[in-house]
């Protein structure tokens, strides 16, 4: 594991190259590496939420004269739902009718149920990340296979690269949980740079062609991730 982690962090993409060249006994298998890191990081995220001493600040607005309301911002879309000012009726905006009806069924006991339910919303969102990644990972590999179809690589080989890259992303997420200022900003810089270097080492090619392919993969994956986040948020709200 330590040999694998050192290579994963020191030389972006080299772990994938070693695996594709057949040196598989020297390092942890890609799926096992990804599962180990992702599970540990998600547990750390859940633990940090439980141990957070600061008062929670969910997107719930409490007012003496108005019942609580929830507002979720997903990308450029804003979703709102809550009880009417008189507390006798449910209303929501920018949501399908069946979703609004399901929310009303879950929270139909009154504004107090809405306030209590939002306390577990963040935990359910964290729980939804793991299953969502099992959709995002194959999607990322599929976009790589589409962008680099002239490399004559099998889909499983693209999937190996996706597993290694996502393992690094989860590791960076875990690092940002450390009580050190500036780590989140550093992660926003390190993650795209690391991914770019890893793609350069594994797929090669001229820098301008690599830039175009990377931009295409990032755009397609961004759409896929947004869709997965919407599904995860709906699951957290309706489950």
Automatic annotation (TrEMBL):
<keyword id="KW-1133">Transmembrane helix</keyword>
<keyword id="KW-0472">Membrane</keyword>
<feature type="transmembrane region" description="Helical">
    <location>
        <begin position="128"/>
        <end position="147"/>
    </location>
</feature>
<protein>
    <recommendedName>
        <fullName>Transmembrane protein</fullName>
    </recommendedName>
</protein>
<feature type="transmembrane region" description="Helical">
    <location>
        <begin position="186"/>
        <end position="203"/>
    </location>
</feature>
<keyword id="KW-0812">Transmembrane</keyword>
<dbReference type="InterPro" id="IPR022134">
    <property type="entry name" value="DUF3667"/>
</dbReference>
<feature type="transmembrane region" description="Helical">
    <location>
        <begin position="27"/>
        <end position="47"/>
    </location>
</feature>
<dbReference type="Pfam" id="PF12412">
    <property type="entry name" value="DUF3667"/>
</dbReference>
<feature type="transmembrane region" description="Helical">
    <location>
        <begin position="215"/>
        <end position="238"/>
    </location>
</feature>
<feature type="transmembrane region" description="Helical">
    <location>
        <begin position="159"/>
        <end position="180"/>
    </location>
</feature>
């Amino acid at each position: 594991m330590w040999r694998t982690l050192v290579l994963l962090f020191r030389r972006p993409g080299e772990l994938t190259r070693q695996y594709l060249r057949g040196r598989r006994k020297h390092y942890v298998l890609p799926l096992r590496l990804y599962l180990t890191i992702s599970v540990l990081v998600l547990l750390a995220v859940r633990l940090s939420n439980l141990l957070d001493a600061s008062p929670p600040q969910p997107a719930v607005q409490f007012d003496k004269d108005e019942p609580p309301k929830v507002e979720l911002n997903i990308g450029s879309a804003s979703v709102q739902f809550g009880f009417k000012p008189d507390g006798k009726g449910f209303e929501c905006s920018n949501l399908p009718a069946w979703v609004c009806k399901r929310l009303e069924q879950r929270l139909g006991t009154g504004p107090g149920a809405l306030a209590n339910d939002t306390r577990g919303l963040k935990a359910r969102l964290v729980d939804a990340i793991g299953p969502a990644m099992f959709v995002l990972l194959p999607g990322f590999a599929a976009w790589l296979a589409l962008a680099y179809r002239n490399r004559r690589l099998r889909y499983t080989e693209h999937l190996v690269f996706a597993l290694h890259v996502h393992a690094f992303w989860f590791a960076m997420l875990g690092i940002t949980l450390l009580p050190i200022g500036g780590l989140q900003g550093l992660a926003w810089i390190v993650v795209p740079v690391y991914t770019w270097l890893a793609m350069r080492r594994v797929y090669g090619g001229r820098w301008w062609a690599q830039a175009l392919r990377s931009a295409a993969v990032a755009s397609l994956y961004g759409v896929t991730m947004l869709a997965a986040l919407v599904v995860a948020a709906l699951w957290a709200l309706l489950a």
